[in-house]
Amino acid sequence: MKPYKILKHQNPKPFILIPHQRSLFSALSSSTSDRSQSPSSEISPDVLVESARSSQWHFIKHLSPNLDSSLISTVLFNLHKTPELALQFTSHVEFHRLDIKTRCLAIAVASRLPSPKPTLNLLKRTVSSDIAGVAVVFDELALARARLGISTTILFDLLIKACCEMKRVDEGLECFYMMKDKGFIPKIETCNALLSTFLKLNRTESAWVLYAEMFKMRIKSSVYTFNIMINVLCKEGKLKKAKDFIGFMENLRVNPNVVTYNTIIHAYCSRGRVEGARFVLNAMRSKGIQPDSYSYSSLISGMCKDKRLEEASEMFEKMKEMGLVPSAVTYNILIDGYCNEGDLGKAFGYRDEMVEQGISPTVSTYNMLVHALFMECKMDEADDLVKEMEEKGLAPDQITYSILINGYSRCGNVKKAFSFHDEMLTKGIQPTRITYTSLIYALSKRNRMTEADNLFEKIMKKGVAVDVIMFNALIDGHCANGNMERAFSLLKEMDKLNVPPDDVTYNTLMQGHCREGRVEEARELLDEMKRRGIKPDHVSYNTLISGYSRRGDMKDALRVRDEMLSTGFNPTLLTYNALIQGFCHNREGDTAEELLKEMIGKGITPDDSTYLSLIDGMGNIDQSVESCNSC
């Protein structure tokens, strides 16, 4: 008879007798008393299997550091018909310590479970650990598959899916070709995962190469496959081919669904081709496929972007008449459209309607409305809206704080802007580059350039990737405050950091020189920007014209005007005002009047500045005449 070991429960209950070669207690004792004698060799697989079956997980976890991969592999094999137990065993034996062979056996056993999630999780842990390349993992899975007698390709399919979910699509594609080489055909769902990942990563060419390979291997595409490839065509801007692809899938007896048409409708609308989207919508109806909320939301979005707000509202009403329930996204599209047009009454009307319909406004809803209020400098109303948002349990996000900081910066309330900056940091929300640019702008407009420079240095130390917009805000502040030396040092810093300056950068520097009467230096900057491949705009030319005109150098001012015309820019109101002011200052009223007639003839309406310059010019002429008469 085999020896018995008596185990006592904590509560006074009858003893439990467990027959075995070696008791659990003695195995545990030997593992803790003398670890130098390789205790794993003294623990049999049967002890561990029995422990797993009796849920002695604490015991197994205690032994875990002393169990070698060979022993664990044997236990996993013995438990392979009860994959739930095998998975629990795996979770208690420090999976990360196992060699690649044992890991792959554990994965193979887990693949017998009804849900693929545990297997995917183990695969991701294995691939991300870089214990072995994906080709080695594939080969070890093939060996484990053969050992367990698994007939399906589920292990390989899940390996590819795991790679896709980790955005390691090239490794997934490598496994695809390894399957092909071994004579296995990947499931269509696996192929779709690869195609979808290529699409998300904007690797449309790779998607077509894979699709062609699938065609050669006679892998039958599903409607989901066709929808992905239609999306690929739309992303490439090939909208006509996307429509033609519907005919191709129908020839293969795969019927398009609402997602198929919605993909094309969305593509047309996102490119401003609303009429093309309407045509697709009608084609969809003719095939007996009813448009859904997404179909109409795409059209409404396209109309709003095209500033066709009345049509968008009509489409919205039609959508509701058809019994389709608008989502918060649909309402947000309309609210955003009317906010951009400055029609806050209509925007808030849609907000109220969505509440009446039982649809809760989202953080995005409030963000759009708050931004619109700040655009009109309605700071108190914006504050009230943020309070309302918080009362409804919606926490301001990174965008909310950026809007608040930008809004208060633009409205000149630097203190309030920085208080929101501090608040977002307290809440663990990191400011964006746009947030910091707004703060630099606010400080610059208040002539607090030392603080602006200090903030810029702090941003750089934080590792925030500064861009041309942030540099331009800082350069503008220094130019406005007459510190041209610092402004040009920032231009040099842009070159060091490989941040290319743009036309705004040079226009700002030119304006700074012209304020100080250094028009020649400004002219040199115009030539420099041309050399750097930056095309001057009407602001560049107007800056020089204004600079020469203020100095009374009208020949050079007219020369720049002619250069401006030769490059394809028509004179603007600012161009004429600068020239008229210059000629009036030089007491050349006749030339100024000719310019006035010319601008009116070109459809440019004079403003107060134009007439004030002419009046001042007439006053100068009268004074000149009086001076001559007194002589």
Automatic annotation (TrEMBL):
Top-rank taxon, per record: Eukaryota
Pfam families, per the entry: PPR (PF01535), PPR_2 (PF13041), TPR_24 (PF23276)
Keywords for this protein: Repeat
GO molecular function: mRNA binding
Residue spans of the PPR repeats: 152-186, 187-221, 222-256, 257-291, 292-326, 327-361, 362-396, 397-431, 432-466, 467-501, 502-536, 537-571, 572-606
InterPro entries, per database record: Mito_RNA-Proc/Resp (IPR051240), PPR_rpt (IPR002885), TPR-like_helical_dom_sf (IPR011990), TPR_mt (IPR057027)
Sequence ranges assigned to domain Pentatricopeptide repeat-containing protein-mitochondrial in this UniProt record: 386-493
Family per similarity comment: Belongs to the PPR family. P subfamily.
The protein's name in its UniProt record: Pentatricopeptide repeat-containing protein-mitochondrial domain-containing protein
